[in-house]
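subagent[fold] <- orchestrator: predict structure for attached chain, return tokens only, no commentary.
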Amino acid sequence: MKRNLPQPNRKIHRRRGALFHYYLAYVTLVSSVLLMTGSCLHTILQSEQTDRRVSLFLHSLLRCERMLRADTTAAQLTVDSDSALTIAQEDGVQIHWVADRGILTRLGTQGGETLNLERYIFPAGSKIEIAARDDGATVVKFFEPSVFVKYSEVGSGGLNRNKPHDEAFPAAPAAAVVQPVTEIVLQ
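subagent[fold] -> orchestrator:
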């Protein structure tokens, strides 16, 4: 019987570097899992910001609608321009609603004396228009900010007052998107 004993002059050749492939596969798997986790976290945070912005818009809109409806009960409405509305109530109080880009101001006066002043501030890029329809109804339109412009995250309607109109309210391509419009119809 012959034994296989190591010979002093003979070198043993082992295969080296096999662990490198295992480490490479491990690093690839871990990095792909971290990449997916980071993408999910980014999406969650971005949707939270979007929800917050929409919530602020809707909250301002709801407050504004309640006050408009309360002002117009048993009152005479006069549309002064596409950005101004005057409401004359029976008790002699005149309420002026003035829209300036993303800010809607309510000023109550009686006999030349200011009774109250309120502002409804909408997100940057919002636009407000006031119009009279042919059937006698008055419509207040709220245009939401453009999807083609990046506004400040904490931006209000007052932040874009000094911007040129074309820059603050860019025209959206007709085929690309329909800009969301909310209307409050009075009387």
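orchestrator: received. Logging for downstream: Helices lie at 18-72, 165-168. The CA atoms of residues 47 and 53 lie 10 Å apart.
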